[in-house]
Amino acid sequence: MPGCFTTWVQLCQPLRFAFLPAIYEYRQSSRFLAWKRELQEYIQEMRVLAASLVRNPLPEHIKVTVFMDGLKVDPSRTQLFREHYGGGYPDRPPRGVQPPTGSYSY
């Protein structure tokens, strides 16, 4: 039928444009890029923030870098980095891949 929404996405899109503030995605991007929390809380919030950037999503490599940079240096961070980049190198990333940088608590 003309004028009807056949999917949830088709309904949500006009609602987002009508009701979200113009700078909503900018604010969500800023929160995403600055997030530092404990692992479980961090993972859940990163999922929510990444899902909120539907009109202008961040590239996957930026999401991974920001996520990894926000984790504290511990075995879980190291394991996630290895899993994402293929795992064949215990001490360093593959050629051309920059490991996340930032301030870490040792």
Q: Topology, pairings included?
A:
Blueprint: H1 8-19, H2 24-34, H3 39-52, H4 60-70, H5 75-84
InterPro entries: Retrotrans_gag_dom
Organism: Phytophthora palmivora
Region (Disordered): 83-106
Low-pLDDT windows of residues: none
From the N-terminal CA to the C-terminal CA, the straight-line distance is 60 Å
- Globally, the shape reads elongated
Give the oligomeric state. Answer: single chain
How much of the polypeptide forms β-strand, as a percent range? under 5%
List SSEs in N-to-C order: HHHHH
Helix content: 40-55%
Kindly provide the radius of gyration, computed on alpha-carbon positions and rounded to a whole number of angstroms: 18 Å
**Tally of helical runs:** 5
Derived from helix and strand composition plus strand pairing, the structural class reads mainly alpha
Main β sheet profile = none
List how many beta strands DSSP finds.
0
Mean pLDDT: 68
Domain Retrotransposon gag: 6-72
Organism: Phytophthora palmivora
Region (Disordered): 83-106
Protein name: Gag protein
